[in-house]
Design brief:
This protein has 244 residues and is an alpha/beta fold. The chain is built from 7 helices and 11 strands. Strands 3-2-1-4-5-11-10 form a 7-stranded mixed sheet, sandwiched between helices.
Length: 244
């Protein structure tokens, strides 16, 4: 059996339309000639690559070596390159100044607590040029309290199966995702099982806005549905565009 990592499977799982929607949201708010953009929590670099191809100057940062290896492979296949850094987003020491910092696909929801979120906001603010922008998305409280608890999604074909089950936790606005893949070995007909648990947490919308303004952001725009609509009680994800 060819060894396959969870990172590879997770990268393959993502719907390309999500990146296309994020690209459009980003392009409506940032010009390609704005300057250098840092993709914070870039993962395997799928969105970073799309932004680079769209004319933006890109750098990527992620904590996962596996994900950054996939980003390097993606760059090699496309013959399109951008710098990537392996680091914790709570400490951006050593990085330069950016015109824009972007963090997508609820990467900030993986932070352990509100104190860590504050560290990231302060690090981003410190590494943004004057009048720079910070764009990110997070899960809403509605998503955490009404959609995710006991959510299940199963997929299978002849070669693989994927099971996703979400559980509530004893932490306010927290959720645990159990993600399991079964990959078929064509030679032996046996299956390789890969399982990971992901923990995410969000906070009331006012908490995000207050923290961003406390850090120093002058203007905070919050939308839903990739910026296409205003925030409602049943919005599942919040999209922020913050001006330094």
């Amino acid at each position: 059996m060819n060894y396959i990592t969870f990172a590879q499977l997770y990268d393959q799982l993502m719907d390309p339309e999500i990146y296309e929607s994020w690209l459009e949201y980003f392009k409506q708010r940032v010009s390609p000639n704005s300057g250098m953009v840092l993709d914070l929590g870039c993962g395997a670099g799928a969105l970073t690559m799309q932004l680079k191809k769209a004319g933006f100057q890109m750098e990527g940062l992620d904590l996962s070596d596996e994900m950054l290896s996939l980003a390097s492979e993606r760059m090699s296949r496309a013959n399109v390159f951008f710098p990537v850094y392996q680091a914790d987003m709570t400490d951006l020491n050593g990085l330069g100044q950016y015109a824009v910092v972007v963090s997508t696909l609820d990467s900030l929801c993986y932070l352990a607590n509100f104190a860590e979120l504050g560290k990231v906001f302060r690090e981003v603010y410190a590494h943004l040029k004057e009048h720079g922008k910070f764009l990110f998305d997070v899960h809403s409280v509605y998503q955490m309290e009404k959609v995710f608890p006991d959510y299940m999604y199963n997929y299978q074909d002849q070669n693989e199966a994927f099971l996703w089950h979400s559980y509530p936790t004893d932490v306010s606005y927290g959720i645990e995702h159990e993600l399991t893949f079964f990959i078929k070995d064509q030679a032996t007909k046996n299956y390789q099982r890969l399982t990971e648990h992901h923990y995410e947490r969000t906070y009331p919308l006012a908490n995000y806005i207050d923290l961003l303004k406390e850090v120093g952001f002058k203007k905070v725009e919050v939308k839903a549905d990739f910026g296409r609509s205003s925030v409602k009680n049943d919005s599942t994800r919040w999209f922020f565009c913050c001006d330094k």
